[in-house]
Amino acid sequence: MAESVVASEPNLTAGSGAATTPAKRLVSLDVLRGLTIAFMIMVNNNGGPGSWKEMNHAAWNGFTATDLVFPTFLFVVGVSIVLATQARLKRGQSPAQLARHTVVRAVVLFAFGIVVNNFPFFHWEHMRFYGVLQRIAICYLIVELFYLWDRRANTKVVALAAVLVGYWVLVRWVPVPGAGMPVRDVQFLDRNQNIVAWVDRQLMPGHLYEDSPAHDARDPEGLLSDIPALGTTLLGLLTGIWLLGRRSNRAKAAGMAAGAALCLAMGFLWSLEFPLNKKMWTSSYVLWAAGWSLLLFALVYWTMEVRGWGKAGATRALAWPWLIFGSNAIVAYMVSELLGPTLDVIRFQDQGRASNPLWYAHVHFFSHIPDPGWAAFAFSVSYTAACFVPVWLLYRRKMFLKV
After folding, report:
1. How far apart are CA 200 and CA 206, in angstroms?
2. Among 126, 274, 292, 337, which is disulfide-ready with 116 (CB 3.0 to 4.6 Å)?
3. pLDDT of amino acid 57
4. Rounded to whole angstroms, how far apart are CA atoms 276 and 272?
5. 290 and 235 Cβ atoms separated by less than 8 Å
6. Which of 239, 2, 223, 218 is nearest to 134 (CA)?
7. What are the mean pLDDT values of the chain's consecutive 10-residue runs (403 residues total)?
8. In this predicted structure, what is the pLDDT of residue 141?
9. What pTM does this model have?
10. Pick from 130, 14, 140, 161: which is nearest to 75 by CA?
11. What is the pLDDT at residue 5?
């Protein structure tokens, strides 16, 4: 195996244009991206209240497997920024060109997020402007421009410490208007009375994910929690810088495993004072989730790049579905988010009552599975398989959609 990483530009966004197959991609990164987006589709369509605990987000403080999905995708974005930027600079593009392209991609991705959130009705009075793709766009924009301006690792470590400690100071020591000082006057990380939710209620009343009652509204992708999400992306960026170093693939995998252990230890210790909380994206959660993301990436990197499973052959075939999902990840996500609402508006009569394709499948197929957890899981896998079809067709045609 080659000891250095050669990567083509990854598809962080998706659009109407098609590009031919890149000359070479980091297989392990595509596999990790594919695993992440497939599991994201599964948990976003988990089959309802009967689904297993690990297929749902923690209600507030805590951590489940589902809480690992979004930060892992942001982590992958950070890794991809380094590999794609270096590849494009080597092709002769200037930092100014890359900066302009970055801004355009971020704007388009943010717009896609608004479409996904509000499809198919787009009622202005309750349109949601925060969201998953919007957070990816913001983190991608800021971290990419930062990397174009300064590509040293030490400045990224300083920035990482600043956003994580700064967010802790903000949440712990800034009084919540109308409630008081956290710990002294109101419970620390109170579900309703915290500075993060308060800011979102002032900026976006009536437009938040959890919008009722209005005085307790909040949004898991709100404005202030973008700050620690930048930390998640920076940890991916630092991993990408590590992968560019002149060291063996085995050493790179070992380094990522060591970094995972460090992040997990730091995240756990900090969580004793600043609890793990995905909805507020707490600083301890950033480190804890990044530890698991790094550990998973180290495992995938070891199998694909060190053991050689990423080469053509039977072993690469094991990674086939994840490579396909990973090569057009944002397309797969948008398909998954638009398919459900589309099927929901297709109404017909079934056995004398109103139905739609999703409800029909539930009644005639999944409801016959006696265990509710397995029934929900079967629905989740089936939905994900349906979303796999269009990205598989794109992959067969060597098409990787991007802005």
Report:
1. 10
2. 337
3. 95
4. 9
5. yes
6. 223
7. 32 35 70 95 92 94 97 97 94 94 95 92 87 96 97 96 98 94 94 94 90 78 97 98 93 97 98 97 98 97 86 69 90 93 88 85 89 95 95 89 68
8. 98
9. 0.90
10. 140
11. 29
Taken as a whole, the chain contains a residue count of: 403
Task: Give CA–CA dist 152/328, Å, rounded.
Answer: 30
**What is the distance between the alpha carbons of residues 391 and 401, in angstroms, rounded to a whole number?**
10
**27 assigned to some structural domain:** yes
Distance CA 138, CA 244 (A): 25
Q: 232, 289 in Cβ contact below 8 A? A: yes
pLDDT, residue 403, reads 57
Q: Indicate whether 9 belongs to any domain.
A: no
Are 224 and 230 in contact by the 8 Å Cβ rule? The answer is no
Residue 230 contacts residue 141 (beta carbons within 8 Å) = no
| Residue 92 covered by a domain | yes
Q: Are 293 and 71 in contact (CB under 8 A)?
A: yes
176, 180, 184, 185 alpha-carbon torsion, rounded to 10°: -120
Residue 333, helix vs strand vs coil = helix
For tokens 């994580």, name the residue: 164
Tell me 353's DSSP state.
E
Position 11 in a domain: no
Closest among 111, 79, 96 to 9, alpha carbons compared: 79
The C-alpha atoms of residue 82 and residue 144 are separated, in whole angstroms, by 8
| Three-class DSSP category at 287 | helix
End-to-end CA distance of the chain: 32
Question: What pLDDT, on the 0 to 100 scale, is given for residue 250?
Answer: 95
CA distance linking residue 97 with residue 114, whole number of Å: 26
Q: How many domains does the chain have?
A: 1
Q: Who's near 77: CB < 8 A, 6+ residues apart?
A: 12, 136, 139, 140, 143, 233, 236
Report the distance separating Cα 264 and Cα 318, nearest Å.
Answer: 29
Question: Helices marked H in 311-396 — which ranges?
Answer: 314-318, 320-327, 329-344, 357-364, 372-396
Range of the domain at 190: 17-402
Cβ–Cβ under 8 Å, residues 218 and 209: yes
> What is the crossing angle of helices 95-118 and 132-149, to 10°?
170
